[in-house]
Amino acid sequence: MRGIRRPAKRPQRCPRPDYPIVRWAGAVDFALPASAQGSGICDAIGTARHLRKRARTAARWFVLRINEIMNWIDELRGLVDATGIIDQPQDMSAFLTDWRGRFSGRAAAVVQPRTTQETARIVQLCARRGVPIVVQGGNTGLVGGATPDASGKALVLCTRRMDRVRRVDTDDDTITVEAGCVLQRVQEAAIAHNRLFPLSLAAEGSCTIGGNLATNAGGTQVLRYGNARDLTLGLEVVLASGEIWEGLRGLRKDNSGYDLKQLFIGSEGTLGIITAATLKLFALPRARAVSLLALPHFSAAIKVLQRARAAAGPGLTAFEIMSGRCVQLVGRIFGEQRRPFVQQYPWLALLEWSDYEDEPGAVRQCERLCAAAIEATEAIDAVISRSLGDCESLWRLREAIPEAQARSGGNVKHDISLPLASMDRFVNETEAALYALCPQLQVLVFGHLGDGNLHFNVGTQEGVPVDEAFGREQLINDIVYSAVARWGGSISAEHGLGQLRRELAQRFKPPLELDMMRGIKQVLDPQGLLNPGKVI
């Protein structure tokens, strides 16, 4: 009886492209070399032997790969405490799907460091092992920017345990916080020192400051205070090499070189991992007044905004726009929401006025503004807050729109920005093009008019299945984004690119801009391990 021949150990190679592929046992594909082909040479026994050898090779490779993964995960366990790593599929599931449920992926593990130093050691390990890293904060993003791909190779690095407020400086009006600090907690820490941190979002109870900076979040008060980028004085960042850049300077003036923090703000975790930030604080307003104006058409909103800017100056904190369809949807989904007007109007504008004197003064300013707008036929009717409860009630109408859309079945979303001078023509022409595509569609428009940001979402009319919109998503996107480009706008105002709009950026951004972005990525992340498959 012949002895068992064992294959010589040699480096495993990919099958040559000219080998024909044979399927064995219905599960594994193997390539046969030319020496094993042809009648009289490759008989049944020879073929079986060859396939068994290939199967053993594949099995050994699989075992080696599993051992390799387990080895680096074992190393990872030595870098954080016992509760800092999650590697069981059922426990990782909450980290592997985005907030909207549109993107899902797999991961080798989830790690939750407590400090910047732990984060740096984790990144150094991943750099040595070639492990991709997906950074995640509150997982409230809308473009799949914090969701790993389906390969299962990536490590999800969650910053939520890095949540300390390190310092509040009332002399310089700054606050230094860690990346995992929830936005609402940052706001409350500022208020405790009689200061204001003005970044405000619908998800402020769960989103983290690291995610806000990584996406350059906007929110409702950009008109007065700017985006997250404008509120940031310094950053602490772990680079792709595992080195720590200590940039937590609270200086308002520093012209000693490139403003490096701006590279990481809005980069969606593709250039470095933000671990802490020094942010601007402001004096806490003593009073606020909110008014809701009913408008005859969209162009009237532009005129009222111009009037409000002239009257209020920096006192104008927010200027939001909502179509009448949005308000009707909120009323239908949330029946308990108090209707501000008996009659339905095509458009509504919500204004907030902040005052450093007293509430009666702010209310009087709002009254004068509303009266002047009505007299000029820019507005039809108006409601003005008389208490803090009134302010919150009027804001709830605006803030309920995203959830009302979700509960109604969702829609095709577009987060765009445009020059104010182009907005009226964009809205009218794009709506007409969409209704020509399908009369059963329904366009829902709302957003931050004061800073040129519209949420231009396309769903279906009541009683029509939302598949009528989702089935035409590509055509809808072509109509909307082509119009945005034609009118000089941006395909992403505040949500970022992530996975959802990465390919759109290739189409609509100038080639030179894309080349510069790739160049920056290559310098800061030469292995391409930070949030691969996002932005570029």
Spatial order of the strands forming the largest sheet: 17-14-16-15-19-20-18
Task: Estimate the global geometry from the Cα principal axes.
Answer: globular
Q: Which class best fits the helix and strand makeup?
A: alpha+beta
End-to-end distance: 61 Å
Point out poorly predicted stretches: 1-42
Which tags fit this structure?
536 residues; Uridine Diphospho-n-acetylenolpyruvylglucosamine Reductase, domain 3; Alpha-Beta Plaits; 17 helices; disordered N terminus
Description:
This protein has 536 residues and is of the alpha+beta class. The chain folds into four domains: 24-75; 79-284, Uridine Diphospho-n-acetylenolpyruvylglucosamine Reductase, domain 3; 287-403, Alpha-Beta Plaits; 409-499, Alpha-Beta Plaits. Helix content is 36%, strand content 19%. The chain contains 17 helices and 20 strands. Strands 17-14-16-15-19-20-18 form a seven-stranded antiparallel sheet, sandwiched between helices. It has a five-stranded antiparallel sheet with strand order 7-8-12-10-11. A four-stranded mixed sheet has the order 3-4-6-5. Helix 9 (324-333) packs across helix 12 (401-407) and helix 13 runs antiparallel to helix 15. The longest helix has 34 residues, at 44-77.
